[in-house]
Specification:
9 strands, alpha/beta, binds iron/sulfur cluster, globular
Length: 214
Amino acid sequence: MLRVTEIFHSIQGESTHAGRPCTFVRLTGCPMRCTWCDSEYTFTGGEHFTLDAIMQRVREFGCKLLEVTGGEPLAQREAFDLIKRLCEEDYEVLIETGGYVSTEDVDPRAKIILDIKCPASGEAERNHWPNLDRLRVDQDEVKFVIADRADWDFATRIIKEYELERRAKAVLISPAWEQIDLQELASWITQSGLNVRMQLQLHKYIWGSDAHGV
Ligand code: SF4
């Protein structure tokens, strides 16, 4: 059984897959408490679903791109079984993980979108650094949410130290919602010379920042 906050079909709002129709399985619970978290409603509640019930629900949407997210999707042990089932049914599976849990046991067919927490999140101490060694350049992406200049300086240091431009399919730079001037962030990126990708959360522009299940 897995505790599930919501299952829905929408437009992927982030990553190199932004703009594509996508089914989302949002699992309940997260061991972290990022200061700017926009998913606090996933910390508690949810409904228990068997793996079969989840598979049946996602099949109804008829969409082969699927993201397992949260909360922290890898915090529930059975999530690894769900990911395997989805891969076996030929879904293109994206895992949006907060970077605290090891990705070691994730089915290798799934694509990892790995958050690296910056200082303003309050959770930078909990980054599980060995996850960076498992990145695959053809399919995995890393994401930094930037709230201020100190976050950007942290991100540039980590990008260089771990050679992330070379090791990940994309290095995503995402502004913390309404916390940082977008033009200022864009200028830091262009001045840096780094091969990174600034991304905005497309779904928030379409449905608003507080919408769930769309
Ligand atoms: S890891 Fe994600 S869900 Fe968990 S507190 Fe941070 S932003 Fe929220």
